[in-house]
Design goal:
Elements lengths: L9 E4 L12 E3 L4 H6 L12 E5 L2 E6 L2 E3 L16 E7 L4 H15 L7 E4 L9 E4 L5 E4 L13 E2 L5 H11 L14 E2 L1 H8 L6 H9 L29 E4 L5 E3 L9 H11 L5
Parallel strand pairs: 6-7, 6-8, 8-10
Antiparallel strand pairs: 1-2, 1-9, 3-4, 4-5, 9-10, 11-12, 12-13
Length: 280
């Protein structure tokens, strides 16, 4: 499915409550349109071979599991260990209870099959860590995958709230995933006026709302390892009552309300599809 691929971009959440357990409220930052406008995405070949193309933006790799920028997927050479891709994570501020919430939530990814080929080392020093976390920030944000190595801020991930779903979501971006609500083949129909009414007070323009919430991505971005729309994905936005409808199994249009809370099987399948071709 989409979202789990390495487009350029980053994700921020609207400012939510800062207490553990408060309900998260997601919104995505603006993608780099120079990238999305410049590249025409194509699926991998029928034999499941990786296809590499040279572009002005660097080498672009098409895997049998969907489209991904090689630079956005963590590589074996980034790893602290040889048996799996181990990413160092360090905290820039905060206290142990806050760190423990982040660590516990992030490790939910490792409790799945993903833990057989990816690991997080929360003992890494700030100097050596690939992922540097700031808590008590004014937003929830994460660099997408390997682009954490090129950010201009000291942190590569930050949190304004410590809700477990927010943390799992941001670590999904850290692994290279994108948002599921823009899945190209979904039957979501948005009530634009309702979305605008809720998001304008949060400082989002109509242009940003259209680009980041309402507009679907190209169908060639479907993840072949998990090719169906996954409304249970942790990479979904919470969708409020009145924002959207969707077709049910009887082809009837019904209200669509989502409040993602955990990592789905589809999330695991797509991350596995993106990383398993990278043999250690």
């Amino acid at each position: 499915m989409i979202n789990r691929r390495a487009f350029l971009g980053c994700c921020a959440f609207c400012l939510a409550g800062k207490a553990h357990g408060d309900e998260p409220s997601f919104i995505c930052a603006v993608e780099d349109s120079a990238v999305t406008d410049a590249l025409q995405f194509r699926p991998a070949d029928g034999n499941g071979q990786n296809l590499t193309f040279k572009t002005d933006l660097g080498p672009l790799v098409f895997t049998p599991y969907g489209t991904a920028f090689k630079s956005d997927i963590w590589l074996p050479e980034d790893s602290e260990t040889k048996d799996k891709i181990t990413l160092g994570v360090a905290f820039l501020n905060g206290e142990k209870p806050q760190h423990d919430i982040v660590i516990e939530s992030a490790r939910m990814w490792l409790a799945t099959h993903i833990g057989t080929f990816i690991d997080f080392d929360f003992t890494a020093s700030v100097e050596k860590a690939k992922i540097r976390v700031e808590v008590l920030s004014n937003q929830n944000w994460s660099a997408i995958g390997r682009r954490a190595m090129t950010v201009t801020t000291r942190y590569t991930m930050c949190f304004s709230d410590l809700h477990p779903a927010s943390i799992m979501h941001e670590f999904g971006h850290c692994l290279g995933l994108q948002h599921e609500h823009r899945f190209p083949l979904s039957t979501i129909e948005w009530d634009k006026d309702a979305v605008f009414a809720d998001m304008h007070p949060k400082g989002w323009s109509e242009e940003t709302i259209e680009e980041q919430i309402l507009t679907k991505l190209d169908k060639s971005a479907v993840c072949l390892a998990s090719p169906n729309f996954d409304k249970s994905s942790i990479m979904m936005y919470p969708i409020k009552d009145g924002w959207a409808t969707i077709l049910n199994d009887r082809n009837q249009r019904v209200a669509f309300v989502v409040n993602p809370s955990t990592i789905s099987d589809g999330d695991v399948a797509c991350v596995t599809g993106l990383y398993k071709p990278l043999s250690m």
